[in-house]
Write a sequence for this structure.
């Protein structure tokens, strides 16, 4: 997983110019978030070791605690970072589609591409780890998930109103099935690009009651 150097708070200063304290702090925060995301994806929250996160990022444990007060704060920041990245890389392009069906299929395709990266596995790993538990991080994961369901449900409702999506079960129920089919597809097709993108879109289209020709 690589942080995009073209944008975002972790962007490096141009060659020949000394970085400011704010830029150095942003770079260290970005590196620590990236290392923590890898650790959470591989080992989960319970087995995440902060010393190892700092070492993999190239910083000391003291530098990590300068940015994050404890492990929970670090994990919460990773969840926020992953959510922001998803919204920028997947949600944003989908929102540019005027047609609800096109937006939903863009979400499906974009999510499949996004899930090729380690960063995407953070949410899946933490959702599994905190399932059935009343934990602040579990609640944060549910908040992110619920936001995604509501986004899909709104698009389904708009598509039905436009006559592009056939009627059926409540939009919220179909939205849950849409996300379930999408996540199941990308999990089972991990490492099988570019087929993961196409088949994720077809799985999503099937839930919506659309034919494969729409993908």
């Amino acid at each position: 997983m690589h942080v995009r150097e073209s944008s975002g708070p972790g962007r490096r200063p141009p060659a020949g110019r000394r970085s400011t304290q704010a830029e150095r702090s942003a770079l260290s925060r970005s590196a620590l978030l990236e290392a923590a995301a890898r650790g959470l994806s591989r080992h989960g929250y319970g087995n995440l070791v902060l010393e190892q996160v700092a070492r993999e990022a190239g910083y000391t444990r003291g530098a990590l605690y300068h940015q994050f007060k404890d492990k929970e704060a670090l994990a919460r920041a990773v969840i926020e970072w992953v959510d922001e990245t998803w919204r920028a890389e997947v949600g944003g392009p989908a929102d540019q589609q005027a047609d609800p069906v096109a937006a939903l299929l863009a979400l499906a395709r974009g999510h499949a591409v996004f899930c090729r990266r380690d960063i995407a596995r953070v949410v899946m790993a933490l959702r599994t780890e905190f399932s059935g538990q009343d934990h602040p991080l579990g609640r944060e994961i549910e908040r992110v998930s619920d936001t995604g369901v509501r986004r899909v449900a709104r698009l389904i409702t708009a598509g039905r109103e436009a006559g592009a999506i056939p009627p059926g079960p409540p939009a919220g129920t179909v939205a849950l099935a849409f996300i379930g089919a999408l996540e199941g597809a990308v999990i089972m097709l991990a490492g099988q690009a570019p087929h993961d993108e196409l088949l994720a879109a077809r799985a999503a289209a099937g839930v919506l009651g659309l034919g494969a020709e729409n993908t």
In short: The longest helix spans residues 136-161. DSSP finds nine helices and no strands in the chain. The radius of gyration is 19 Å. The domain at 71-214 is CATH 1.10.357.10 (Tetracycline Repressor; domain 2).
